[in-house]
Amino acid sequence: MDSYLFPFDNLLCMLLGISFTVWITLLLVFIIVPAIFGLSFGIRRLYMKTLLKIFEWATLRMERGAREKNQHLYKPYSNGIIAKEPASLEQEIQEMRRSGQGGEPEFDMSDIFYFCRRGVESIVDDEVTKRFTAEELESWNLLTRSNYNFNHVSARLTVLWGLGVLIRYGLLLPLRVTLAFTGVGLLVVLTSIIGLLPNGRMKNLLSQKAHLMCYRICVRALTAIITYHDSENKPKNGGICVANHTSPIDVIILASDGCYAMVGQVHGGLMGVIQRSMVKACPHIWFERSEVKDRHLVAKRLSDHVADQTKLPILIFPEGTCINNTSVMMFKKGSFEIGCTVYPVAIKYDPRFGDAFWNSSKFGMVNYLLHMMSSWAIVCSVWYLPPMRREEDEDAVQFANRVKAAIARKGGLVDLLWDGGLKREKVKDVFKEEQQRLYSKVLVGGGSEDRSRS
Amino acid sequence: MGSRASSLLREEDIEEIKKETGFSHSQITRLYSRFHSLDKGENGALSREDFQRIPELAINPLGDRIINAFFPEGEDQVNFRGFMRTLAHFRPVEDNEKNKDPNAGEPLNSRTNKLLFAFRLYDLDRDDKISRDELLQVLRMMVGVNISDEQLGSIADRTIQEADTNGDMCISFSEFIKVLEKVDVEQKMSIRFLH
């Protein structure tokens, strides 16, 4: 009996050994070495083009399937469900009154129509709640999580989808997880070693190289295909870099192309280990949980860091929370009060290959990373905008809005005044009071006109 | 991920809603997707909290009255049929010309039904009359703290005086219709739904 098993056993071991070696060699040659030197073979872009062709084919098949069954395919329209008129409260009510009776009464029972219609319009389609869920796609990208037309998926398409699942979970996921562990592990080890060196130019140089290398490995761990535009505007020392926030991956994307000082809360566990070792190699700004509430302390630490020209530019996400990359929401004014040069950066993800948005109310971090690593790829564009400074007659809020508008324009995102905090909190009453105040002006204003006439 | 819900809506349901409200097939699926994304509890019905989570509605001075209009008397949940029935009031009137069915009752988005919707926003206790108190309460909602009680009271009195024809110091539905006969209700109370 034994003699039968023995040769198979040997063969199996040999095969495993060979495939393992081949695997590691491929990994090293095609991924890790280029990461160290910042080169690229162009494999990822080829991959991207092939995928796009497959997605288009998949959508055409689904449309054909739907037409055969004489049914409608669910298609999300980027224009929205309804067409709204962007007129103000005063305009609309005056318009309504003019079309009514001749003499202008102070109050008209038809005034209610304005509030009524606006209210129902916001129930059907509002600007805010749709920013906190993943964007809807025009064509299906063979991921279950973005399929809206289950009943139109034909047999051939199902096979393709099944193949996709095999490739993504069987091949890509293990590869990416290995790379991620390598990248993070190297980061911790290298920064700890560099931390032992005396402070000086050598240490800074080595630390930058180490950070860049490890982030590049992480970029490959996500199969992120990033296009950087206008690199001449890259942030310099003594400044603050601000960007729109879609996911924790934003950090990796920006940090693999430049060196930044990170800002954040001190975490426990693995994150804590990474944070502690990173700060050994170069100064980052980590806050204890209790310190975060103290705005003055935060501002002081940031200003101190910025004043030191040898320290790296700070990376901040002023929205304070993850938004789904279709819009830019209110920027918190804290970072704009410091009074240094601000380097805005716009990040726009291409949702066709994998949605990078982290819906933190629905998914935890591990679940999210799993989603990321089992998508096809993360494709995004990064624009470095020219630096901005606060003008003499601007306050921090106006400056923040100016920067936000520039980022929204460059990235092709909608510029909203709403606070990203509305993801979890209720809207403040002061906005309702503003609406009431505006309406009262129309009422009372109309009344005084009447009196002066009579 | 909420859009997966379009597959949970059956064709028969869509047809029934189409007949009752006059919305097209694609409009119904899109509105179902919206309904589903508002339904945080994922139980197939919306509660008042689900509506209040919409910031633009929360800052609307009449937000609570509008939310109330979706819920039938005494109920706390509205299902998709009820949701569509209420939204149907806001369909533009021209769209009716396409499917004229002489046997069907008055469509939900007729001028009269639009006026009835607005009337019910004023009529807090649903007794088919707008009393001075009810008018005052709604006015107070719309102006907040910016106008004094006396001024508001005189505005209310003047409005009732102008509208009241039978002398009962209340505005009935027919008096309401009369006051607004020159107003373009069809346009003011319509939302342009894209196809």
From TrEMBL, chain A:
Intracellular or extracellular location(s):
Membrane
**Molecular function as annotated in GO:** glycerol-3-phosphate O-acyltransferase activity
Q: Which CDD domains match?
A: LPLAT_LPCAT1-like (cd07991)
Pathways involved: Phospholipid metabolism; Lipid metabolism
GO terms under biological process = phospholipid biosynthetic process; triglyceride biosynthetic process
Any single Gene Ontology cellular-component annotation: endoplasmic reticulum
Which keywords has UniProt assigned to this entry? Acyltransferase, Lipid biosynthesis, Lipid metabolism, Membrane, Phospholipid biosynthesis, Phospholipid metabolism, Transferase, Transmembrane, Transmembrane helix
* Phospholipid/glycerol acyltransferase domain segment(s): 239-350
Primary location group = membrane
Pfam families attached to this UniProt entry: Acyltransferase
Can the keyword Lipid metabolism be found in this entry's annotation?
yes
Transmembrane parts of this sequence = 20-43, 153-171, 177-197
Q: Does the keyword Transport apply?
A: no
What family, per the record?
Belongs to the 1-acyl-sn-glycerol-3-phosphate acyltransferase family.
In Swiss-Prot or TrEMBL terms, this protein is called Glycerol-3-phosphate acyltransferase 4
Organism expressing this protein natively = Chanos chanos (Milkfish)
Automatic annotation (TrEMBL), chain B:
Question: Is Calcium a UniProt keyword of this protein?
Answer: yes
| Keywords recorded for this protein, A-Z | Calcium, Cell membrane, Cytoplasm, Lipoprotein, Membrane, Metal-binding, Myristate, Nucleus, Phosphoprotein, Protein transport, Repeat, Transport
Subcellular location as annotated = Cell membrane; Cytoplasm; Nucleus
Keyword Membrane tagged:
yes
Q: Name one GO cellular component term.
A: cytoplasm
Q: Looking at the record's lineage, which domain of life comes first?
A: Eukaryota
Q: Which SUPFAM superfamilies match?
A: EF-hand
Domain EF-hand, by residue range, is 26-61, 110-145, 151-186
Main localisation, per the record? membrane
Q: Name one GO molecular function term.
A: calcium ion binding
A GO biological process held by the record: protein transport
Gene3D superfamilies registered for this protein in UniProt? EF-hand
Q: Which Pfam families match?
A: EF-hand_7
What protein family is recorded? Belongs to the calcineurin regulatory subunit family. CHP subfamily.
Could you tell me which PANTHER family the record lists for this protein?
EG:114D9.1 PROTEIN-RELATED
What this protein is called in its record is Calcineurin B homologous protein 1
Q: Which organism is it from?
A: Chanos chanos (Milkfish)
Q: Which gene encodes it?
A: chp1
